[in-house]
Each structure stands twice: as structure tokens, then as C-alpha cells.
Amino acid sequence: MRKVIVSNxxxxxxxxxxxxxxxxxxxxxxxxxEYARTLLRPVDxxxxxxxxxxxxxxxxxxxxxxxxxxxxxxxxxIVFSATLKEAEWKNSRIVRGNxxxxxxxxxxxxxxxxxxxxxxxxxxxLLQAGLIDEYxxxxxxxxxxxxNPLFQNIKERLKLKLLRTQxxxxxxxxxxxxxx
Length: 180
Fold this sequence. Notes:
By secondary structure, the protein is α/β, with parallel strands linked by helices. The protein has 5 helices and 10 strands.
């Protein structure tokens, strides 16, 4: 069975973006890029919610060629959205139906791992539905005070098991969890 990995950045106070959707507080350095390259190597599909897809698709197809850009541009991309009209980024398609049902089907198909980038509300709904195999939180050493929380609309307590940690020299810590 294919594995679904969620990879999201978070401030120490639990936000994935600031109150005006700003992302300027993420520490993006060579260790982060190495994490991204390692994350993408076993992946054959990237999953997105609409907003994250629009943000990334506005940049990645035109980014300078490197291992991350080339991999993201070549991979299959699935956007879960009821409102997105078109998905023009190469190898993208839109799923408008029941996301949990579609993802459960995708997990049963043969292939490599799937990664969900950003899309915090969507990721939270899939976590609660039991469809996330691994949750990687890239904890940035900053308190931003307000913004949009990484975990949204969680209705019940979910126990997680720590799989591993990775510490960068910048103070960023990647925490990898699965459901206990």
C-alpha cells in the first residue's frame, strides 16, 4: 500500500502562516533543501489543496532547474478542490469529489509514496480520517503571535508516535510522527 506523508512548516506557537498569509518567517537554507530532496525521492505523486497548489504552481514551473524543481515539475499532481477551474501545471489533475474516498483509493493503487505539501486544513481533515501515514512537522524557531493554525478543526484527540527527529544548524527541527 502506498504511504501518504504530510510535510508542513510550523512556528513554535503552532501556525503555518501569518495572519495575512505571510510565509516570510520560514528558514529556507541548504539543510531545508536537502530535506526536500530526500522527501521527494521516493514520491511519485504530490497532493495539494487549492490555495497551496495555486501558490506553488505560480512559482515552481518557472523556477531554475535543480533536483527539487525538476522533480516537482515532473511528478503527478492531484489538487483536491471544488472551486479550482483549471490545473495547468504539467501532470496536474483536479479531484472535485469526496477527497477521503479518492485518497483511500489512491493508497490502494501501486506506486510510490504520495506527499501532501501545505494545505493545512485539508491535511487536518485527512489526519482525522486516518489517511495520513506520516506527519512531518518542520518546526521553525520563531513565535509569530497569530496566524492560521497548522491543525484545524480536529474533533477528537489523536495520539501520535514519534518516529524520528532531525535538527538543522538553524534551529529548525523536523518531527516525524505516525498515529499511535
